[in-house]
Write a structure and sequence with these properties.
The chain has 189 residues and is mainly beta. Helices cover 11% and strands 67% of the residues. It has one helix and ten strands; from the N terminus they run αββββββββββ.
């Protein structure tokens, strides 16, 4: 419960900062219409796999977000997670946006002893911006209620080879497991 209050406070604080410091027009500074494919490496039990995800910007800074993630672990455990949700982008400064999302998650787990599934909610609040016109950085605090509740910090960076194609790395540092990804985004706006 404390973690949920911390995340709610962060999202509220980001809204207050964006309202007080908004120097950009009401449109997001960055493109939120993309599809991405990422290789995912989990530091627990040799887990790795792939994530196919995306985002689509609706009118008035609202987003639809979602992803499919499949992971295989060395102990013959496989997981498949689907998430879908919505988000909002607060233009903050030139080339910088504050982003919040809420997602519904469902994870199926297959083991040699049977299978199970669990559903929950994911909350995220963070910042996304350009250090240079070719280099984007992201940071967020995320909380998920699937399995054991967990809160993690995400740090990421992408290099834009063209305005429509970027590739980069991300690291999620959490209480239960740390995750590293490498992948690419295709922007279709």
């Amino acid at each position: 419960m404390k973690q949920l209050l911390v995340i709610a406070g962060l999202v509220t604080g980001m809204f207050a900062v964006s309202t007080a410091n908004a120097q950009a027009p009401n449109q997001p500074a960055l493109n939120y219409n993309y599809a991405e494919l990422r290789f995912v490496d989990v530091d627990v039990a040799g887990g790795d796999g792939f994530r196919l995800g995306g985002s689509y910007e609706l009118n008035n800074n609202w987003l639809i977000v979602g992803s499919l993630t499949t992971l295989d672990f060395n102990n013959d455990v496989d997981t498949f997670t689907i998430d879908i949700g919505a988000g909002f982008v607060w233009p903050w400064q030139k080339d910088w946006d504050l982003v919040g999302t809420v997602r519904f998650l469902n994870t199926d787990v297959d083991t040699p002893f049977g299978s199970d599934d669990d559903s929950g909610v994911g909350l995220s609040g963070g910042v996304r911006g350009l250090i240079t016109p070719e280099f984007e950085v992201r940071g967020a605090v995320n909380h998920v209620t699937v399995g054991d509740n967990d809160t993690f910090i995400e740090l990421a960076g992408d290099y834009y080879f063209t305005p429509q194609f970027a590739a980069g790395l991300s690291v999620d540092v959490a209480g239960d497991a740390d995750t590293f990804t490498i992948g690419a985004r295709w922007f279709f706006r």
